[in-house]
Amino acid sequence: MTQSSRNIPSEILEFCERSSVALKDLKDPRACIEYVKKELPGLLCNRGLFIDIIKDSLRGEGFLDVQRPTTFDNELVLYIDKDRLFSLRMYLWGPGEFTTPHDHNSWGVIGPASDGYEVINYQREDDESREAYARLVEVERVILRQGETAHTFPLKAGIHKTGNPTEETLITLNLYGKSLPRGYINGFDIENNRVFRILSPRRKKEYLLSKALETLEKM
């Protein structure tokens, strides 16, 4: 765990410690998802917990490091299991904000702390033989209420777009399982049938450094 347990709200710490014990014995991603979908609503429906987290963070007194670099700029890391079995993250969604369609490196369960969060699931129809090409078709669209959850799977089995179609700012909790060592996720441009890599800030810097070195060495 990256944060000091003394600073983490007891509700989150207890949830994560229970999850660590339970998930350690579960090998099937579907079983892991089923467990988390039963447990996560207890946090999502705790309005006071989110109020306290936000107020503490705005005062600079919370356990969250809001300056810590993450893949997405609306992402805050709440907890990372010491054995890397899972991580719990909080996402903030302004009115009308959506992700680009993307896949995942792990299974995951997501849910909102208030009504209105939208999840759009896709299926990839091409055979992945053409570089930078992908053809997606929408297969499901749901609006989640407070405490309801959706889930995802690794790689092309878990392609979705999520976001906030409302005029309010929403919060979601996302619990992700152990990540595959791919180093990136795929983003998708549906209109142009394109696929591209999304890198974390650190990996993007490493990638650009290596490419810059290649350029200099060719001169």
Describe the structure.
A hairpin with a 4-residue loop joins strand 10 (185-189) and strand 11 (194-198). The longest helix has 18 residues, at 201-218. This protein starts with 9 loop residues before the first helix and ends with a helix. The strands form three sheets. Strands 1-2-9-4-7 form a five-stranded antiparallel β-sheet. Helices cover 27% and strands 32% of the residues. It has a single domain, classed as Sandwich (Jelly Rolls), CATH 2.60.120. Helix 1 (10-24) runs antiparallel to helix 2. It is globular and about 55 Å long. The protein has 219 residues and is an alpha+beta fold. The chain contains five helices and eleven strands; from the N terminus they run H-H-H-H-E-E-E-E-E-E-E-E-E-E-E-H.
Q: Notable features of this structure?
A:
single chain; alpha+beta; Jelly Rolls; 5-stranded antiparallel β-sheet; 5 helices; 32% strand; RmlC_Cupin_sf; RmlC-like_jellyroll; Cysteine dioxygenase
User: Can you give the mean pLDDT?
Assistant: 93
Write the CATH fold name. Answer: Jelly Rolls
Low-pLDDT runs: none
Please identify the structural class as seen in this structure.
alpha+beta
What would CATH call the homologous superfamily? Jelly Rolls
Our count of helices gives 5
Order of helices and strands: HHHHEEEEEEEEEEEH
DSSP summary, beta strand count: 11
Instruction: Kindly report how far apart the N and C termini lie.
Output: 45 Å
CATH architecture level-2 label: Sandwich
Q: Strand order within the widest sheet? A: 1-2-9-4-7
